[in-house]
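Budget justification note: compute hours in this period were largely spent on complex prediction jobs such as the one shown. Inputs:
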Amino acid sequence: MATGQAQKLAKWALMPSVAALSAWAFIPLALTFYFAFLRYNLQDPDNTGWAGFSNFYYFFKDPFFIKDLINTVLLVAGVIMATVVGGVLLALLLDQRFWGRGIVRLLVISPFFIMPTVSSLVWKNLILHPVFGLTAEIQRWFGFAQPFDWFGKLPLFSVGLIVAWQWLPYAALILLTALQSLDEEQKDAAAMDGANRFNYFRYIVLPHLSRPITVVILIETIFILNTFAEIKVTSVGGFAGNLTYLVFSQLNDANDVGMAAAGGLIAVVLANMVSALLVRLVGKNLET
Amino acid sequence: MARAQSPRRTLIFTLVGWTVGILMFFPIFWTTVAAFKTESDAYSLPQNFLTTPWTLENFAIVQERSDYVRYVINTTLLVTLSTALALVLAIPAAWSLAFAPRAESSSRLSGWAWIAIMLAAAGVSFVTLYVNDWKVDNFVLGVVLLLLVVAPATLWVWTRNTSGTLLWILSTKMMPPAGALIPIYLIFNRNGLVFRDWGWINLSDFNLMDSLWGMVPLVTLLNLPIFIWMLFTYFKEIPVAILEASRMDGASLWNEITRVLMPMALPGIASTCLLNIILAWNEAFWSLNLTNKYAAPLSFFISEYSSPEGQFWAKLSAASIMAIAPILIIGWFSQRQLVRGLTFGAVK
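Corresponding output:
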């Protein structure tokens, strides 16, 4: 598109989106930054002014902060580990030829389309309920008199189970797409060279998957850092809350805007470290 | 694959594959079954799902008790309007990025100069706030301060080269909602940052809380980065030579876009819309925080069942099925496009 008129038009065609996204990205961030240094409590409107770093100080000192930070890391790490390992296995399975593969693919991908509030309540009540749930039923069938109380005893694990169920299809689908782009000739060559199944997987498949696995890890990290509905709806925020939930409860229960903003900034910094890596990776791909 | 597979191997993989598929799908299947049980059967021990008398009453009760139809209307409005708005914004942007790429920044200033300008603007607003004792009681002052911070950044992004702009658009999707929750909450609220009595104008009768006027732009902005990226990858696949040929034949820019480009890009646009419909439909963080009645979508509607009275599983299941069925079907149709939309072109 060499014509000058088109070039000029193209420049302006970009403007509305850039302006809208820029407002969305920078205005809340600037305000969060501003609030994080203020004394600002919705229940105490007269107490205002510069707070220095005290919001951060009290946020760090909040006993929930360390706990929720650990919960955040555990949730992200656990779900990613489960979905990447499970995703590779599922992708390898779906890459085989068998009867009804298309339907199985649909069944496997389905959890990804379920809204988080539905999957939370279904898992909490119908599946993991300690008396009437399906797991309780199965445990009784195996002879356990006292079925395990998942959400009572292991709230973080239960939340992780729900999140992993939702994200496993995503990992599997992306890794499957990558697997299918594996060169047929390479497969045949490996077979001819007498590579056994394990060596074929270890030296051909796994290196081929390393890049998509990185992408899955980065994108899932960004989304799972923000897990919220699963924690709020199952009402385990006090035990298995993460950083996002802590910010929410500072705003909602304590009405402390300054503290909540300080927490929000910490979340932004955490997410930015991951997204910088992802943006770099995507950028490299853009140039080729 | 040219090699033949032994029937035994196929049989084993069929068994394993179906087992795994059924296990993954089982919670959804179980919910569907429970939706047609009577309430006491849903709790009966041991669970029986073959002997239970089927019933449709749960669906009627859900509608009667919590007005399902209203939430469906809200969700549909939210999804359609935000998708339409995102299309209007994203098509020109993606067209510009794909067909008029810039190798160099169009501004004469270097990146460091832009950063210096942004820091200077932030410094000026800092001093202004300091002088005003950290209060912003004046509407105009607030707007000026915000513009001071935001405008340089916007101009910088706007003039960057194409890959720089694209990556910046991607990075806006990475912003954690926890970082934006507080300001958005206060902007939307009555007597918050915007909708209050400013002296010369009284805005305290308005707010954006629990209203589609607030939710639609918000969801649009949430999905806009994915929208632009996906459209960009589809537009990139259209050979420029075809567009040039139409220009040789004397087509105007308008005709070139509407008659040549759009028909070729239509499948891509459709699958972009489908993915974003799914994302908007399932959005939960902002719906749970910013709506509670009038503009509440289905994800909020379901969350109401988290603190129920008495036996409620059959009703919960019926409500869940009604909330997920439409999007599950759309998802099945668009699953092949999902990879493109959710990896930002990093996996091919």
